[in-house]
Amino acid sequence: MTTGRPRDPDRDQAILAATRELLAERGYAGFSIEAVAAKAGTAKTTIYRRWQDKHDLLVAALKDHVPHYPEIAEADSLRGDLIAHASRLATLINGFDGRLALGVMQARPDVAGIAEELERNTPSGARLPERVITRAVERGELPAPVDRDLFEEIVSSLLTLRMIRRQLVDDDYVAHVVDDIVLPAFRNSAREA
Amino acid sequence: MTTGRPRDPDRDQAILAATRELLAERGYAGFSIEAVAAKAGTAKTTIYRRWQDKHDLLVAALKDHVPHYPEIAEADSLRGDLIAHASRLATLINGFDGRLALGVMQARPDVAGIAEELERNTPSGARLPERVITRAVERGELPAPVDRDLFEEIVSSLLTLRMIRRQLVDDDYVAHVVDDIVLPAFRNSAREA
């Protein structure tokens, strides 16, 4: 896609950032090369020199995006750790990353590469470190290691659907998900281990 | 919105059905009054005589939609009942209603009335009848009645996110959700009752 003309990395970055902002602000229906050009303060031809079409640009913008996951301090209980990790995801989902994920979801299934980028870019700050489980077993809170993928599966699904339905994801909702769904699933998983 | 001109109910129904089909087939990005008119074999002016704009038409099309939930035979165990109800939702989500829900999700949050219609129209065939819980308590499978809303919350979230991510929702996945997440949550809810 590149030509003999030297590329301007700053210009490229500005175009990719404008693409993500448009998706987050106006959704896929409001996303066009023309709108990106206007937002990035560049010419449509500049964009077309680097990317074939809007889908090519969209995939590049998502590949370039690195969600920011703040560090999480270790708590002194399994429940404390789970609340902290679920709350971090709630913050992401309530912010720019959630709006971006919603914009990406709006892309049609037939856009090549979108499903994979969607998977990679749906806020997945809910991936639970192995260490959380190890510590819970050491503290005697769990009788055996559990399938920690259950955490991400449950928390990201429930919080994402709340976001899609424009329902509030607050501390009470996060506590409900951890206490009433994740912890019972973990205890069951430990029993079966 | 109606004028002195007599309305043709069949024509109206055809326009609303075409709206739903377009949303399910091409998503919100492919939805326009022009495309609906072409699909319904009518003139754009006919549509504008009845509905103010595309959002007005979209809300009317969703209000008019009655998802078909097939009857479910009672099983002889709580697990059997839960699998049957979750499977029915999986069938809906894998079919027209799931594609329609995805199309509606693509509408922007600022479209008045969409959030409510989305809530009403996201396949909710997962609403568990009280009878399923009563029977489980009678059979001694649960020590006390549980919060049955947990079923709908868990199943519709997990299955919807799978659909959005274009991941398979098959019998194995349904059994995983019931066995590893719903049943542990129910047992926990019964303990706390």
In words, what does this structure look like?
The structure is a homodimer of 193-residue chains. Chain A has 193 residues and is an all-alpha fold. Chain A has two domains: 9-63, Arc Repressor Mutant, subunit A, CATH 1.10.10.60; 78-192, no CATH class. Chain A contains ten helices and no strands. In chain A, helix 2 packs across helix 3 (44-50) and helix 9 runs antiparallel to helix 10 (171-192). The longest helix of chain A has 22 residues, at 171-192. The model of chain A has no long low-confidence stretch (mean pLDDT 87). The A-B interface holds A 26-30, 105-109, 115, 118-119, 122, 147, 150, 153-154, 156-158, 160-161, 164-166, 180-181, 183-185, 187-189 and B 26-30, 105-106, 108-109, 115, 118-119, 122, 147, 150, 153-154, 156-158, 160-161, 164-166, 180-181, 183-185, 187-189.
Shape of chain A: elongated
Q: What count of domains describes the coordinates of chain A?
A: 2
Q: Provide the succession of SSEs of chain A.
A: HHHHHHHHHH
Major interchain interface with per-chain residue totals: A-B, 34 and 33 residues
Oligomer: homodimer
Average pLDDT metric of chain A: 87
The computed structural class of chain A is mainly alpha
Strand content of chain A: under 5%
The percentage helix of chain A is 55-70%
Spans where pLDDT lies below 50 across 5 or more residues of chain A: none
Distance between the termini of chain A: 51 Å
> Main sheet of chain A, how many strands, which sense, barrel?
none
